[in-house]
Every structure is written in structure tokens, then in C-alpha cells.
Design brief:
Blueprint: H1 5-22, H2 28-43, H3 48-61, H4 65-77, H5 81-92, E1 102-104, E2 107-112, E3 116-120, H6 127-138, E4 142-146, H7 153-165, H8 167-170, E5 173-176, H9 183-191, E6 195-199, H10 202-211, E7 217-221, E8 225-230, H11 240-252, E9 262-268, H12 275-292, H13 300-317, E10 323-327, E11 335-339, E12 352-358, H14 361-368, E13 375-381, H15 385-397, E14 401-404, E15 428-432
Parallel strand pairs: 3-4, 3-6, 4-5, 6-7, 8-9, 8-13, 9-12, 11-12, 13-14
Antiparallel strand pairs: 1-2, 2-15, 10-11
């Protein structure tokens, strides 16, 4: 049911009052402890939060039950006392700087979070929204969270799980939903916000940026794409099975819906094994992942797009040796498309991935140059000195994250999402002396 203007106003007032009441006696360490405990409570196989998420999230997200379980492990496994503390210490220098004046360099200073943060969440994967809520709590803010119709479950259940651990802390957050097109409701939500955090497609993020108050801090996370590169050193008989398994995980988890999901694997030639060997091994590994974690049910439109995409390449492969297709024997569960063309091609998603041969890192840079501003993550195997030089080239092009293949979907809590800090851009500082 859609929220009303009155409900949005009431939620803002209620969370602001809770913020003023709670932060008078709540330390940052106590907040870290509560959030870490709430996240830990999701990880037990018998957790009631896990059970409710599996029951309630499959329909709106489109994920299978097994994928919801995988999402729970990935999302809440990353939220620990150690990782939350490291996030604060790394970005603010000292987690206690949110509690009191602390020595930073030669000056005494303390940080203050926004009084009210308006969060607008996307529904493709749950982790960014959960992390955004955690950041709001860590910064001692009141938080109004607009959930997505594609995932109203994870944020709402996480709030309830925090309430079980610390009811006062939970009072500082409210989750609501309303149609994207209801401009008056969105204006009410952002009108008094000191900060706005927005996830979604570029159009949505741009529209929210225009609606946000001029004085409000705005963090927008729009559309991004990712890819991976396999160097010739990694293409050995001994290494291929484990490498293919890691690549299949990155390409399959979340049904390839996230910004960290690779669309293309570039495989360097002149290794012990060739790129086609990698394509075949990747398809086998994706079949194994599909057996363990089935892809979710596709809409009629999504299924038609996958069939059209896959059929087109299968038809071309029948008469062109430069193209090959390894696909699920029945249905549309997954497909690996081998294509000699070095050009980057965006996948239609839902576990459809390209493998392309390359003669080296320089050729890859040429192929992705026009897309560099849209790239989130690049997976590499192996992570050696050659890879470090390549990572420096990617950094100069504006790529924000480089990691081993198999870790693309496991960013640490401290990573610079889209190249920016999670907390430091939201605080203001007061110096003493």
C-alpha cells in the first residue's frame, strides 16, 4: 500500500524525535554492536529472519529461494563488528570522533552526521540498501527509507531484526513505499532532508538530484556495468576448473542483475589453453551453479529477450566459426557466447555472458574505453604484477574497483562504491581550538 503525505511527514517527525532521544546516551560502539548482532542473526540456517525473507522475497525480487538464501549470506555476512568498525576508522580516522572531540592530526575535531537522510533504494540486489541503512545508523541520523517495489522485504525485515536487538535504535529508521511517479510524495520526503542517498537507473537518480534541496548532500548511484579479464598465465589445465567456478559465481549470482555482474570475460590468447576452453569450462560451471542455485522465474518480456538474444547467436554460429554458444540444454537458464569480435557487448542479463579472445591488456583497454565512465568493477585472474599495471591503467580511465575473479560480487564493506566514500562525504566537522 502506498504511503500518504501524512504518513511520510509522521515518519520524518517520529525518526527525528527518536534521533534526539537516542543519541544522548548511545555510543558509536553500541550502535556497531547492535547492527553486527542483528546481521549475525540472519546467518543462522534456522533464523526466523532468513525464513521470512525466503517466504516473502521470492515474488517481488524474482529470485529463487536458493538465490534469496545466497543473497542473505552475501549481504549479512559482510556486516560484522570488525567491518563496521573498520569502515568508520578508515573513513573518519577514528570511530570515536562521532562521540566526542578527538585528536585528528594536530587539531581536536568531531564529526556530525546529517540530521535526516532520505534513502531511495533500488530492488535489483539487496546489499546496497542494507548498507545504506547501516551508514545512516552509524552517522546518528534519522532515516526515511523508500523501499523498491522490487524488494520491499529485505529493508523492512532488517529494520525489524534491528528492533529485536535494540528497539530505540530501530526507532531512528522508517521504511515506506510509494509510486515513483508520485512527485508530491517524493518532494515531501526530500524537502527537509539534510542528505539524500539514491540508487537506481540514471534517469531516477537525476530526477531525485533535481528534487533534493540545494543545501542537502546528495549521493547518487546510477547504472554501472562490469567485466573481467583472464590473463594467459591463468589458463592452465590445473587452474581452469577453479577459475571457471569462480567466474560462474560472479556471472550467475543475483541472476546477473547487479552492477557488479560481469557482462564479458576477455580471455588472453597464447596460454596453455585457449579462450574457447574457458568458454566451455565456464558453461559447465554455470550449469553446476544452476543446479545448486536455480535462476529465478523470468517475466514474459525477459524470457522473450533471452530467447531472441541466444537464438540470434546460435543461428550465426551455425555458419560462422568465429562464434560459439554453450547453453542450457533446455529452457533459458544460462548461456555462454563466444565471439571473436573484441568489441564490448552488454548482455541481456539473466545469466547470459560473453567470452571474447584478446591479445593483451592493451587491446582490452581499447575495447572498453568508450564505456569507462560506466564501469564499476573489473575482475582479473591472476592478480600479479601485470595485473597491477593494468589496474593502474583502469584507474586512470575512471574504473573504481579491480579485484580477483570470484570476488566481484563480494565487495568489502569498506569499498569506495562508485569511487566515493560511504560516510566521509556525509559528515560535517567541528574543530576545537
Amino acid at each position: 500500500m502506498s504511503a500518504t503525505i501524512e504518513q511520510i511527514r509522521e515518519a520524518i517527525g517520529r525518526t527525528r524525535e527518536a534521533r534526539e532521544r537516542v543519541w544522548q546516551h548511545r555510543t558509536t560502539d553500541a550502535v556497531i554492536t547492535a547492527l553486527a548482532q542483528a546481521a549475525k542473526n540472519w546467518l543462522d540456517p534456522k533464523s526466523p529472519w532468513r525464513k521470512r525473507a525466503v517466504e516473502q522475497a521470492t515474488a517481488p525480487t524474482g529470485f529463487s529461494e536458493a538465490m534469496v538464501n545466497e543473497a542473505i549470506d552475501l549481504t549479512f555476512g559482510a556486516i560484522t563488528y570488525e567491518s563496521l568498525g573498520e569502515l568508520l576508522d578508515r573513513e573518519l580516522g577514528n570511530r570515536r570522533v562521532l562521540d566526542e572531540f578527538c585528536l585528528r592530526g594536530r587539531a581536536q575535531t568531531r564529526a556530525m552526521g546529517p540530521r535526516l537522510i532520505a534513502h531511495f533504494l533500488a530492488g535489483n540486489v539487496p546489499a546496497p540498501g542494507i548498507v545504506s541503512m547501516c551508514c545512516g545508523w552509524l552517522l546518528r541520523s534519522a532515516n526515511l527509507v523508500k523501499v523498491s517495489t522490487h524488494d520491499p522485504v529485505f529493508p523492512t525485515l532488517f529494520l525489524e531484526s534491528v528492533r529485536e536487538v535494540d528497539a530505540e535504535l530501530a526507532d531512528c529508521v522508517a521504511t515506506l513505499d510509494w509510486p515513483r511517479g508520485e512527485l508530491a510524495l517524493t518532494q515531501t520526503a526530500v524537502g527537509d532532508a539534510d542528505a539524500v542517498i539514491a540508487y537506481g537507473d540514471d534517469h531516477t537518480v537525476s530526477a531525485l538530484r533535481q528534487l533534493a534541496p540545494a543545501a542537502a548532500k546528495f549521493l547518487g548511484y546510477g547504472h554501472k556495468i562490469s567485466f573481467a579479464v583472464v590473463a594467459k598465465e591463468a589458463m592452465t589445465e590445473e587452474n581452469l576448473p577453479q577459475l571457471a567456478q569462480a567466474a560462474a559465481f560472479d556471472a550467475s549470482v543475483y541472476d546477473q542483475q547487479g552492477c557488479l555482474s560481469p557482462h564479458v570475460f576477455y580471455v588472453e590468447e597464447r596460454g596453455q589453453l585457449g579462450p574457447r576452453k574457458f568458454a566451455a569450462a565456464l558453461a559447465d560451471a554455470m550449469a553446476a551453479y544452476q543446479a545448486r542455485v536455480p535462476r529465478g522465474q523470468l517475466s514474459v518480456e525477459e524470457a522473450a529477450e533471452v530467447v531472441k538474444f541466444r537464438t540470434g547467436y546460435e543461428f550465426a554460429a551455425a555458419s560462422d566459426r568465429r562464434i560459439g554458444v554453450w547453453a542450457s540444454p533446455s529452457g533459458t537458464d544460462y548461456a555462454v557466447i563466444y565471439d571473436d569480435s573484441p568489441a564490448f557487448v552488454a548482455s541481456c542479463l539473466n545469466r547470459i555472458v560473453f567470452v571474447k579472445p584478446t591479445d593483451g591488456y592493451k587491446r582490452v583497454l581499447d575495447a572498453i574505453q568508450k564505456f569507462a565512465s560506466s564501469i564499476s568493477t573489473v575482475g582479473i585472474a591472476p592478480m600479479n604484477e601485470r595485473a597491477l599495471a593494468f589496474a593502474n591503467d583502469l584507474a586512470r580511465m575512471g574504473v573504481h574497483r579491480v579485484c580477483p575473479i570470484g570476488q566481484m560480487q563480494r565487495p568489502p564493506l569498506t569499498w569506495h562504491h562508485d569511487g566515493r566514500p560511504n560516510l566521509a562525504d556525509l559528515v560535517t566537522w567541528t574543530d576545537l581550538g
